[in-house]
Amino acid sequence: MLDHLRPALFQAAQDAESSTMSPAYRTFFKDAENKAYVSNILANMTAGAPIHPPTTVNDGGPVIVCLTSEGTIAGTYAGGEPYDAYTGCRNNPYMTSQSMSGTPYVTLCPFFWNTYLGTRRTIPPPNNCLSVDTRKNKFHVNRLGRAGPSMIQFAMWDLMKQIAHIYLIPEQSRRGVAPGESFDDANKLLPLSADRSLMSADSYVLYVA
Fold first, then answer.
1. How many helices and strands (H and E) does the chain possess?
2. Do the strands 132-133 and 105-108 form a parallel or antiparallel pair, or are they unpaired?
3. Three-state helix/strand/coil letters over 8-73
């Protein structure tokens, strides 16, 4: 999955560095003055560069953790209330992944690995193309049952979104932007101002995709 993601990130970082705004860049980031910032975020994601400023956990890049049982990632909130990342997955079966503010951790819930299986997905349309269930922003299985590519693509963009969160959180905090702002489809993302688009992980996912 990471082998698929890195080339896509690298190509997008190069696009953001170009002297002109591509249609994709103009659509999702709008302002040429932000090109250096966008390119830097994508380059950091490609290389797994250290998070700046460093988190209280380590001074490296994002750490991806698969949650398999209680206690894998646990601690207390600022107010002293205990939390357990696996319990959060268990209480919300639609949760596939999350980035944990103030830490380098990107946690993958069990549901990450079988996101479109079972009865939760809707019936796909009668064509061979991948389509999206906009209620959950997840790929449908196509009518030929070729689910493998859609799983890889969904998982790749899902993981990318959480890695983007990790790199954006320090700047979101500096700007007073609430971390974790999420948009379930492009139609809700496009009307955002350039500044809000810049701080949304979804902008980076759709730009790279």
1. 8, 7
2. unpaired
3. HHHHHHHHHHCCCCCHHHHHHCCCHHHHHHHHHHHHHHHHCCCCCCCCCCCCCCCEEEECCCCCCC
For residue 163, the model assigns a pLDDT of: 93
Distance CA 183, CA 166 (A): 17
In a 13 Å sphere around the CA of 44, the CA atoms on its Cβ side amount to 20
Give kind and range of the element (H or E) at residue 190. Answer: none
Distance CA 8, CA 21 (A): 18
Alpha carbons 193 and 195: distance in angstroms, whole number: 5
Q: What is the mean pLDDT of the chain?
A: 79
How many CB atoms are closer than 10 A to CB 80? 6
What is the Cα–Cα distance from 98 to 105, expressed in whole angstroms? 8
Closest C-alpha to 190, from 13, 26, 17, 22: 26
* pLDDT tens-digit series, residues 79-89: 778 889 988 88
Query: Taking residues 173-199, what's their average pLDDT?
Result: 79
List the structure tokens of 10. 């690298």
- For the purposes of burial, counting CB atoms within 10 Å of the CB of 23, is it exposed (0-12), middle (13-18) or buried (19 or more)? exposed
Q: At 153, phi and psi to the nearest 5? A: -65, -45
Cα–Cα distance between 70 and 141 in angstroms, integer?
31
- Angle (CA) 155-167-160 rounded to 5° is 10
pLDDT at 194 (0 to 100): 92
